[in-house]
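re: that chain from earlier
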Amino acid sequence: MTENVDVVLIGGGIMSATLGTLLHALQPDWKIVAFERLSDVAQESSNPWNNAGTGHAALCELNYMPQVKGEPLDPAKAVSINEQFQQSRQFWSSLVEKGVLDEPKTFINATPHMTFVRGEKDVAYLKDRYEVLKKQPLFEGIEYSEDSRVINKWAPLLMQKRRKGEPFAATRVPAGTDVDFGALTHQLFDHLTASGVDLRLNHEVKNLKKQKDGGWLLSYRNTLGHTPNQIKARFVFVGAGGWALKLLQRSGIPEIKGYGVFPIGGQFLKTTNPKVVAQHKAKVYSQASVGAPPMSVPHLDTRVVDGESSLMFGPFATFSPKFLKKGSMLDIVTQVRPHNLWPMLRVAFANPDLITYLVSELLKNHRKKVDSLRTFMPTAKDEDWTLIDAGQRAQVMKKDPKKGGILQFGTEVVSSADGSIAGLLGASPGASTAVPIMLDLLKKCFPKEYPSWEPELRSLIPTFGKKLNADAAAAATSTAATAEVLGINA
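^ sequence. v structure.
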């Protein structure tokens, strides 16, 4: 007998955990099964050492507010990212109050977000950015300085032994956060399994086939004994990182045509030297190198994982044909289809700077990587820092009417016309905006049920359906309330 369920979640990361938590709260009578091919959840992109843990709110990331020649700076995308993160904060706060999540400090900690730039051009840009953002309610409290004494108080490691006469500037928002998405994912799945959701570890979904009644028949196997089996679901979510593309292709939905992914790996320098760690409490972002993708913006970060503080610097790009750290060396080849070959070739032709950047990164040895750190932290010593491998990021490539194909940074949900299957492609700021991404998915894939779900969604997310940045008083009230519950008062 083939097992019948309401929802199947593929992948044990923060996206599946968030969607599962929302669906269980909205429809506790639905039978939900989650599949993870590894022996535990949060082992790929959601693992705390596979990402920088930045609660992306556009407080310090310059790529959310790029400078376009001849045009005034537009804060729209930065405001949108911040709005989305506020929804995540509200959702987590509600779950803390309900006892679903543990003590907030186990997954989120107050960490100022800073931007640091050098050179007259970047200093002028950062000052313009500050002047625009300080007028936005969600960026209340942002500070700007070109004074080395002030910046030294904010982040001493940036200023020690810095060359005199060099133009530099920094912004700082004390209300930033560091998030352990691995701990958050584990806690959400612990709640789901305690509530009756079936989490099947060491189980890999191999194929998906649409049924005449509109549901999906999934073929899967136990990765330990290779025992094959099948399950039927009314709705399927594919939150399997880079492998989402492969599974959506196997589903045969026309909406996935023209899509491909380009895998980019990463490494970070890490130190746990208490003398160094004690001098820096911030996430400090700067400008990306020429040709570098936005996800490779250099940053020096405080991390708090399992209660222990450390510093990370990077990322340094690496290349592997795998779509996941524990993927297949054939991933980049087996994704190729007649419908996505041309868009992917166009992306390759149109992005020579990216190829040059990747090659230059691959040629860097340990000392050269610490030299890159020394542009942030002049006193950095080679022996204090070790390299750790971060997660694989699968950047979206897709058709474009004008260019033939484009490389898209960010996240994108691809769903079937009938809403019976959906998958998530892309990378940053994904985890930080998991809640609004899943809310959009619910609205798109469950149009009949969604109106009846809205009251419960408003109880979980008090400003659901509203734009906080349009109401300064509401923005202040909301951020203060979530900061209090999550213990992240600046």
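The chain is about 35% helix and 25% strand.
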